[in-house]
Design goal:
Structural class: alpha/beta
Helix content: 25-40%
Low-confidence stretches: 2-11, 548-553
Mean pLDDT: 94
Number of strands: 20
Shape: globular
Bound molecules: ligand NA7
Distance between the termini: 24 Å
Oligomer: single chain
Number of domains: 2
């Protein structure tokens, strides 16, 4: 493997050791590690700047649901000590600024080609390299390809009758205009009530003349209790970073350092349980689900938390009929990603907000100036689609990835994604996925999982170089066993009960498979480390031809 590109696009040698697809948090750190190891690498990014999901998702109120001081890189002590997060949950512009700062601080931009999509990657068995074709009509060779394409990047346009005929502006939360949107004096329709809508509805309601929220499935949301961070709070975390990061990586199931539960919900009586839920509710945020250690394992335990949140909704929302409509009743709490909000339920007390229940009928039709649902017309000027993403596999599927005999990854994954450890898919040599299906990924603090995957891949590439190995691929047995394990663990939880994007259920026709690995980031990290320590057990590795000849002569 070379330290610099050979610049020989037609030669048998790879032009780059590694092509990385995507310059979000995963792609940026991957590039940084590769360069430190002396590999030649090029990153392709379809946006005009770094940041990935934080580059695209610019809707009002967009912010991370993991606290900023934890949703940040840990690989550089200087970086984590010098960056000043302003709020408990940083807003999207600040997270984007952080990504830009990282790109500048570590000089990453010189190896990133912006405004360029990877359209096709084809493995050339003859020279053991990937041929990567991009939207600018060029092709490069790379010995390895790393997909850092993100799990929630492929914004999904719903297939609703009449949508193309709507005369006003249509915005998708996942593709928000960079210049922002002014809703003043407008009648706005929002379709969807997932995390993006829950964050943006209160702010859009403050601006719009009238807001219609079309709700197919009510969601559980916990107050963020967002606030400015004080110097003392920042310093306390910075001083304690080694322990905070260690616990997040090794002990916390979801990669978030928090007070760990030591008992199940049914170990407490009703009053004690209520006190505990009240404390978590007052604290706010995702860690509400960590009130007890069995909320995602035991339906009865889960019911206690769900009914607590339903009661809270009834307390906040003045009109009992609207409150009832907002109370989720068809999935366990947490089985769809729990939302974190600022004044979401209270927004429905405003006279200019109307909740439209489309559970029974869906949106029937979009007309040039209205949405028809439940047989009723709602006249609007502007439409916001908060309809989510083709999660986890959508961005990978958009690339035409071909291996031996022209077999595509999409064909292989037609019945659901199959990977070994979420890192590689059998039959596709030298192709790595960061936070792919089969890894903890979206069930965790993404940056914790990204750093773990990037470090594992970087160490693996260094190992291969040191041992004269040029090709690596998951074995069919290892992959089959891992897929079975991922499914088995998911079935032990309440997660598969919900029609969630974790299950692919939000995309018509997508196979229903629980995609992320739910065993916890600590357990998963140990498994990955053991696999590496055992000489990359479950992966077939091939030596350079010359080394093979030398070994046999
Ligand atoms: P989500 O969580 O997938 O939410 C999408 C919402 O849009 C959800 O309420 C869907 O209802 C609704 N939806 C989707 N298609 C339609 C149609 N055709 N008609 C009506 N309603 C529809 O996406 P978000 O962007 O909010 O959040 C994604 C993640 O980003 C989030 O979990 C955080 O991790 C950050 P459904 O539930 O399918 O009935």
């Amino acid at each position: 493997m070379s330290a610099a590109p050979s610049n020989a696009e037609n030669s048998r040698e790879p032009a780059f050791d590694v092509v990385v697809v995507g310059a979000g948090f995963a792609g940026m750190y991957m590039l940084h590690r590769l360069r430190k190891l002396g590999f030649s690498a090029r990153v392709y990014e379809q946006g005009s700047d770094v940041g990935g999901t934080w580059y695209w998702n610019r809707y009002p109120g967009a912010r991370c649901d993991v606290e900023s001081m934890q949703y940040s890189y840990s690989f550089s002590e200087e970086l984590q000590q010098e960056w000043n997060w302003s709020e408990r949950y940083a807003p999207q512009p600040e997270i984007l600024k952080y990504a830009q700062h990282v790109a500048d601080r570590f000089g990453l931009r010189q190896d990133i080609v912006f405004n360029t999509r990877v359209e096709r990657a084809e493995f050339d068995e003859g020279c053991g390299a990937w041929q990567v074709a991009t939207s600018d009509g060029k092709t490069v060779r790379a010995q390895f390809v790393v997909l850092a394409t993100g799990c929630l990047s492929n914004a999904r346009m719903p297939d609703i009758k009449g949508l193309p005929d709507f005369e006003g502006n249509v915005y998708h939360t996942g593709h928000w205009p960079h210049e922002g949107v002014d809703f003043t004096n407008l009648r706005v329709g929002v379709i969807g009530t997932g995390s993006s809508a829950i964050q943006s509805v209160p702010l859009m309601a403050e601006q719009a003349r009238h807001l219609f929220v079309f709700q197919r499935t009510p969601n559980f949301s916990i107050p963020a209790r967002n606030a400015a961070l004080t110097d003392e709070e920042r310093d306390a975390v910075r001083k304690n970073y080694p322990e905070i990061r260690r616990v997040a990586r090794e002990e916390a199931r979801n990669g978030i350092y928090a007070e760990m539960p030591d008992r199940g919900a049914l170990d407490d009586g009703e009053n004690a349980r209520r006190v505990k839920y009240e404390q978590r509710w007052a604290k706010g945020g995702l860690t509400f689900m960590m009130a007890y250690n069995n909320l995602l394992l035991d339906q009865t335990a889960n019911d206690t938390a769900a009914s607590f949140v339903r009661d809270k909704i009834a307390e906040i929302v003045r009109d009992p009929a609207i409150a009832r409509c907002l109370q989720p009743d068809n999935h366990p709490i947490g089985s769809k990603r729990i939302c974190v909000d600022t004044d979401y339920y209270a927004a429905f007390n405003r006279p200019n907000v109307t909740l439209v229940d489309i559970r029974a009928t869906g949106v029937e039709e979009i007309l040039p100036n209205a949405v028809r649902a439940g047989g009723q017309m709602h006249e609007i000027d502007t439409l916001v689609l908060a309809t989510g993403f083709d999660a986890m596999t959508g961005s990978v599927a958009k690339i035409d990835i071909r291996s031996r005999d022209g077999r595509t990854l999409n064909q292989k994954w037609a019945a659901g994604p199959k990977t070994y450890l979420g890192l590689m898919s059998e039959g596709f040599p030298n192709l790595f996925i960061i936070t792919g299906p089969g890894s903890p990924s979206v069930l965790s603090n993404m940056i914790v999982s990204i750093e773990q995957h990037v470090d594992w891949i970087a160490d693996c590439l260094a190992f291969m170089r040191n041992h004269g190995l040029v090709s690596m691929e998951a074995t069919p047995d290892a992959e089959e066993q891992w897929v079975a394990h991922v499914n088995e663990v998911a079935q032990m939880t309440v997660y598969p009960q919900a029609n969630s994007w974790y299950m692919g259920a939000n995309i018509p026709g997508k196979p229903r498979i629980f995609m992320p690995y739910i065993g916890g980031v600590g357990v998963y990290r140990r498994i990955c480390n053991e696999v590496a320590a055992a000489g990359y057990r479950g992966f077939a590795m091939t030596a350079r031809q010359t080394d093979r000849l030398a070994a046999t002569s």
